[in-house]
Design brief:
By secondary structure, the chain is of the alpha/beta class. It folds into 3 domains: 173 residues, Rossmann fold (3-Layer(aba) Sandwich); 155 residues, no CATH class; 84 residues, Type Iii Antifreeze Protein Isoform Hplc 12, CATH 3.90.1210. 40% of the residues lie in helices and 19% in strands. The protein has a 7-stranded parallel sheet, with helices on both faces. α6 runs parallel beside α7.
Length: 430
């Protein structure tokens, strides 16, 4: 962070800001626009693409930017950027193709639509910041293969839990402690929540009920921890993770004993979560150290006697920190969190209710499925269906509540790029 803010100051002084475009102008996108336009010197939000111009215009307006103008083509977009006029467009592909943009922040939450956009941005030499855990956790590893070939960075965002966990993981490793568990702190987990049960909460905070449901039903936490696993080489100790629930307000330092020591210490480490601990919604890393003298110092510094030492960050500040991810990518080619180890953990689809043959599956955070984290080797060997590919699939047979779906249970829509890239990913990392 200290290096990033210093370099941004230099870019500001030089009149040479990092030029960022954003795709998606919903709740989170508007927060990013507000932050970038007012509080990140040395960076400029040059364009916003959204399904409807009014949404893009609103994001700029709420950020205090009133002079945005619409563009329909790549040429029109490039002209506005060259004249330092904030651009809005319904043509998201043009943002991926236009010159004058260093990085794209993708904030749609979609899978198939975003697959096309991200691949196009990579092919046009743009760094990509994903505020889209679902895409990253489904085909992030193969997208990184394409990004590496193009010489650009693809990264999930700092400020969201995976990025904050990765910052903490890197810190823990840097001081010589071995990370063995990367954890996420949740306030609620109920796999049977749906947009109807979550409607009131969503309305209170101005959010999408389906997105809020994906937080509550475990799908989002599964994607977040899958992303961390793919970035660190860790696995899950069991399908769905342990996910212990503790009394509200239990200090996170007391949680280490709830994870079986052999599961934590054997192998490459695990990703997991806890419900109810404080500080929430923070993140934590459990680490070990085998040097007796260093163990003595860790005890002196109030981390206890081991064998597990708890490091934690008490918050994550999504849209406040997301712009810094773009700065890290552009200025240093440093990813906040990227699938460096290929697919280690997937998120597979389980039935939220009894499902019937002939039904077409709805989206994540809706009424029919929830996501569970599973090791990629198991996903492959058992032919399990990634939940990121489930929407729009037609069921070939009845599926009882809580059963995990397989490819053999469904018929996929024709011609989806996300399916093509997933197959390529499975083959590439076989």
């Amino acid at each position: 962070m200290i290096i990033v803010d210093s370099e941004l100051k230099k870019r500001h002084a030089q009149g040479n800001p990092v030029r960022v475009a954003m795709i998606g102008a919903g709740f989170m996108g508007r927060g990013i626009a507000l932050q970038m336009a007012n509080f990140v010197k040395g960076m400029k939000l040059v364009a916003i693409a959204n399904r409807h111009l009014d949404g893009a215009r609103r994001a700029y307006r709420e950020a205090g930017v009133e002079n945005s103008k619409a563009a329909e083509t790549v040429e029109q977009l490039e002209e506005l950027i060259s004249k330092d006029i904030p651009a809005i467009t319904e043509n998201a592909m043009a943002v991926c193709q236009a010159d004058g943009i260093d990085a794209i922040i993708e904030v749609t939450g979609a899978i198939e639509f975003s697959t096309h956009l991200v691949l196009e941005a990579i092919n046009h030499g743009k760094h990509v910041v994903l505020m889209n855990a679902e895409l990253d956790g489904t085909i992030g590893p193969i997208l990184k293969v394409y990004a590496d070939k193009a010489g650009v960075v693809i990264t999930n965002a700092d400020g969201d839990q995976p990025g904050v966990i990765m910052n903490l993981y890197r810190f823990v490793k840097s001081i010589g402690v071995k990370p063995v568990l990367c954890g996420n702190i949740k306030g609620l987990h109920d796999p049977y929540r749906n947009p109807t049960t979550q409607e009131g909460f969503a309305k209170q905070w101005g959010q999408n009920p389906a997105m809020v449901t994906s937080f509550a039903d475990g799908t989002k936490i599964s994607f977040e921890q899958a992303i961390v696993a793919n970035a660190t080489g860790m696995k899950v100790a069991k399908r769905g993770m342990f996910g212990p629930t503790v009394a509200s307000g239990t200090p996170i330092k007391e949680v280490a004993a709830l994870y079986p020591l052999e599961a934590v210490l054997d192998g490459p480490g695990i990703v997991d979560y806890v419900v109810g601990a404080e500080p929430g919604p923070g993140v934590f890393v459990l680490g070990t150290h085998d040097h007796p003298r260093q163990q003595h110092y860790l005890n002196l510094y109030k981390l206890g006697t081991g064998p597990l030492y708890c490091f934690y960050t008490p918050y994550h500040l999504c849209h406040f920190e997301a712009p810094l991810t773009a700065a890290r990518a552009v200025l240093f080619k440093d990813a906040a969190i990227t699938p460096s180890f290929g697919p280690c953990v997937d998120v597979v689809a389980a039935a939220k209710i009894d499902l019937k043959a002939g039904q077409v599956l709805d989206g994540m955070g809706h009424y029919m499925t929830y996501g569970l984290a599973e090791n990629s080797a198991v996903t492959q060997s058992e032919g399990l269906l990634p939940i990121g590919l489930a929407e729009g699939c037609r069921l070939l047979r009845d599926i009882p509540k809580d059963q995990v779906l397989t490819y053999a249970d469904i018929e996929r829509p024709d011609g989806r790029l996300c399916d093509k890239l997933r197959a390529e990913q499975d083959n590439h990392f076989k």
